[in-house]
Amino acid sequence: MAASATPVAATVTASGPDRRPRPIAVYLFVLALVALVPAFAFSAVLLQRNSEAQERVVETLITGSARSIMQTVDREVVANISTLKVLATTESLLNGDLAAFYGRVKTALAGTSTYVYALDANYYSIVSTRGEFGAPPVLSGDIPSARKAFESRDVVVSGLVVGAASGAKVFNVLFPVFEGKLAPLVLGISRDVASLESALLSDKLPDGWNVAMVDSAGTIIAASSAEGNAGKTGEHFALADVATLDSSFRLVTLKADGQLYRAAIRQSLLTGWTLIAWAPASLISQPLVDAVWSLAVGGLLLAAIVVLVVYWVTLQIGRSVRGLEADAKRLGTGQPVTARDYPISEIATVSAAIEEASRRRQQAETEVRFLMRELAHRSKNQMTVIAAMAKQTARGADSVPEFVQAFEKRIFGLARSTDLLLANGVVGVDLRELVTSQIDPFCPADSGRLTLDGPSIRLNTKAAQILGMAAHELATNAVKYGAFQTDSGRLEITWRRDLDVLHFDWRETAQNFTAPSDRRGFGTAVLENMVGRSLGATVERIVHPDGLEWRFEIPASAIDPNRGPEEA
């Protein structure tokens, strides 16, 4: 036996942890995690995609602005070239009349930051609107560009240079002229680089973005701001080697001094200049960082709220479950239970069910106690009935065998009432058969002393049990105190159905009748309470000089055989 018990114990021990109950808070937290984690993951994906979309929008905006700015600068340079071409064909220049040429150009450019000059073959300025006419010739400060113009016989646009006459930062547009009395010479337009700033600012860039125009040597010609870490006008562009940059339709990444920048690059075929629009990479990623922080902070707040809500719900459920536990214990001990007003409807439903179960248990216990009393009462009555039956049978018997035979018949009749209920419970019990089965064991041998009169009426099971109990009680009392106590008493039972009411009348007559006392015994309680309460009937007892009469008025719905016991 000891050996066989070991595996069972091991099995129970092994399976115990798997079935260990967990608090409802655990399940609520798991439910919250299942709901929140995918939501945060989905939000993170949306943020990432939104950041990528914003970056594409910024990229489109910046590259478009860079292209527009470069086109604006190119248009201004083209306008300068057109001006030089027109000036190269003027009659005064072709005839060598520099005074007339100077006066005409000076008047045309008055109030602008644009100046026209002419260089001879030795790169000396023979005329310049920046100074007075007839001033001594000055050697050009941009000889390489002038030499290139002579050699290429084409227009040349210089980078940033410092004017020889003015000492200002300028850029030059040079046009070689090989016709006229003064040929060969170079006509040039000198413009202050500050005049380009308006072109750089023609397209408004987002905050944090800077733009610079850089010549082929990497020198900044003009910049929108001196705060972009790339240098000022006239300084070398510090963020990248311009020679390595190419025009791009997308943003490129530049790295300088350990910091990353995002930039749009546009190069001009006309001037050879490079336009760079840039901003720190952190500026572009900042919206994503802010959104991530917002998501994190919002997630923490939401998680805190969820924890508080789960805690509150756990408290509510815990209190309700403990209340149900107390109600269940009261139900188990047989105490009455009243439904409580729980905040959770499902638990409130269970509480109502427990109250109903308690009510039914109380009712069942009451019925059981009543049935026990009825059983004891019937047992006593049965003894009295059997004794009376024996006396009555003995008075009418002439021999012992005759007595035994008659006595057995009466005993068997007493048991037939129970068989009648079992045999006809479904289709309904006939009232006449029910009354006959209940009073047959008590009837005297003289059948003329009993009258049964009434139509055929069927009863449902509950009504049959109650009326059978009442008929048994009345018959017992008739044997003890009424019509069947002597040899001359009579019993008349009549019934009729009037609309929705069954009228049942029990009338006893007896000689030397003695009225019963006012004490209410168990039999009277059965008749008045069981028939009256269970069937909703009106019960009336009438004491006549020659005997008792019981009248019952029972609603037809209470005896309807088509209605089940619970419904009835």
Automatic annotation (TrEMBL):
Pfam families linked: HWE_HK
Superkingdom per UniProt: Bacteria
Enzyme Commission code: 2.7.13.3
Catalytic activity: ATP + protein L-histidine = ADP + protein N-phospho-L-histidine
Listed transmembrane segments: 24-47, 268-285, 291-313
Coiled coil: 347-374
KW Mitochondrion (keyword) present: no
Domain Signal transduction histidine kinase HWE region residues, every copy: 374-456
GO molecular function: ATP binding; protein histidine kinase activity
Key words of the record: ATP-binding, Coiled coil, Kinase, Membrane, Nucleotide-binding, Phosphoprotein, Transferase, Transmembrane, Transmembrane helix
Stored Gene3D superfamilies: Histidine kinase-like ATPase, C-terminal domain
InterPro entries hit by this protein: HATPase_C_sf, Sig_transdc_His_kinase_HWE
SMART domains: HWE_HK
Name used for this protein in its record: histidine kinase
Source organism (scientific name): Devosia nanyangense
Lineage: Bacteria, Pseudomonadati, Pseudomonadota, Alphaproteobacteria, Hyphomicrobiales
